[in-house]
């Protein structure tokens, strides 16, 4: 028996693991080079303006004398104390519009995903078509739709719907324009596609065999929806509500065109402070307060909805 041969009954020697080849440094840096354009874009168009706005919010001065950084943090407190009703109104309008978009968009997305058949693409085009029109023009169109004496307001008045909304404080008498209802209707219409598209994407991924299995187990359609369809579509619900609520809370076009001075949102105040009053520190402070409030609400909402992986 030679030295290299193992004695009978002895365990076979373990094979040496293959040598791990380390990729060259150039190949290891490829993912970072691919990320570089996006990082530069965020630094130039997001991080730098954010730092500039933060600097502006702690300045004092005037347009004639110039603004200087004096670390005047009281601007935040003064801005919040002066314009908290607009903050509350913005959150309220955005929340109501988000709920309406969910109530209107979920059946539509369900129809497209499961019932539309060969008409699916046509319905999707009809949902996306408003995006090809200017946001401003779409909002102006609602001034015609909700005009006093128009067919829509006349029908609502004949059905005594306006009596109910007036009692709720959403309208004033026999008119809809320049009321909270008009602003909420404009927000709901303009941001409805942002709700439908994520919902449709989430519903389309559901395996139809799950519905068949629920039917084989004698589950009612309502039970199937409650126990199977809706839980599996929660990622779309969360994404849709975020995509609707966040821009709606900062919107000012709908309140400007469809509302009055009593329906001004915080976006209208920021726009006025920047472009009319020229009080840049207050406008910057309001922007940061709005951003912080939205980030806080979004984080709490995502964690409560059980989708922490989206954070």
Concise overview:
The chain has 311 residues and is mainly α.
List the helices and strands and how they pair.
Blueprint: H1 25-28, H2 30-57, E1 59-62, E2 66-69, H3 74-115, H4 120-128, H5 135-145, H6 151-158, H7 161-167, H8 180-204, H9 208-216, H10 221-232, H11 234-249, H12 253-258, H13 266-275, H14 280-304
Antiparallel strand pairs: 1-2
Helix pairs in contact: 2-14, 3-8, 3-11, 3-14, 8-11, 9-10, 13-14
Description:
With 311 residues, this protein is mainly alpha-helical. Helix content is 68%, strand content 3%. A two-stranded antiparallel sheet has the order 1-2. Helix 3 (74-115) crosses helix 11 (234-249) and helix 3 (74-115) crosses helix 14 (280-304).
Q: Characterize the quaternary organization of these chains.
A: single chain
Mean pLDDT: 87
Helix share bin: 55-70%
What letter string, H or E per element, gives the SSE order?
HHEEHHHHHHHHHHHH
Shape designation:
flat
Strand order of the largest sheet: 1-2
Q: What Rg do the Cα atoms give?
A: 28 Å
Biggest sheet architecture? 2 strands, antiparallel
Strand content: under 5%
Helix/strand/pairing category: mainly alpha
Low-pLDDT residue spans: none
Question: Total number of β-strand segments?
Answer: 2
Distance between the termini: 66 Å
H/I helix tally? 14
Attribute tags:
311 residues; mainly alpha; two-stranded antiparallel sheet; 14 helices; 2 strands; 3% strand; flat
